[in-house]
Specification:
- This protein is an all-alpha fold.
- It has nine helices and no strands.
- The chain is elongated, with a radius of gyration of 26 Å.
- The two termini are 48 Å apart.
Length: 171
């Protein structure tokens, strides 16, 4: 009885005459990507407009730099982050992000400007992991392998031996 009822309901409400159409995951992913890109572009336009009216807004500049970095556009992030560092020179997290952005924009090369940023970070916090990592990378890139290894060994001392998280998330 229930099978007959199901078939009857399908014939009445369904579309049995239409040809079957397979699910198209790539079309759905493409549509989603376009929507996300469009939303990101709208957000960035809004932020750019805000920064034109408020060029000294450190948080806005940080947001612009961070968003451009996450979008894979470090060369676009540099200007905003450089301005933010000028306005907030004691913000070590910002300074480290700026240095990291310079490295990313240079395809992994730690430039003089980037190493200056990381040295300033280390002057404020000698155990900053990003700065230690990039300082070691710079040493490696300039042929100072032993010094690079020493720097990275120093970095590894700050890594906790215990798993991070609660017992529930570790299992």
């Amino acid at each position: 009885v229930s099978l007959a009822l199901s078939i009857g309901l399908y014939l009445h409400l369904g579309s049995p005459a239409l040809p079957g159409k397979p699910y198209n995951l790539s079309a759905e992913q493409e549509a989603l990507t376009k929507a996300v890109v469009s939303e990101f572009d709208a957000m960035m336009a809004k932020l750019e407009s805000h920064l034109e009216a408020n060029p000294d807004d450190v948080e806005g500049l940080k947001g612009m730099g961070w968003a451009q970095m996450r979008a894979g556009k470090p060369e676009k992030a540099i200007g905003a982050l450089k301005r933010a560092v000028e306005l907030a020179p004691k913000d070590m997290q910002l300074l480290a992000l700026y240095g990291e952005t310079l490295v990313e924009a240079a395809s992994g090369k730690v430039s003089d400007e980037a190493i200056d940023a990381f040295n300033r970070v280390l002057a404020g916090n000698a155990k900053d992991p990003r700065a230690l990592y990039y300082k070691g990378l710079r040493l490696s890139q300039t042929g100072e392998q032993k010094a690079a290894l020493a720097r990275w060994s120093e970095l590894s001392k700050g890594i906790p031996l215990e798993p991070v998280g609660t017992p529930q998330t570790r299992n």
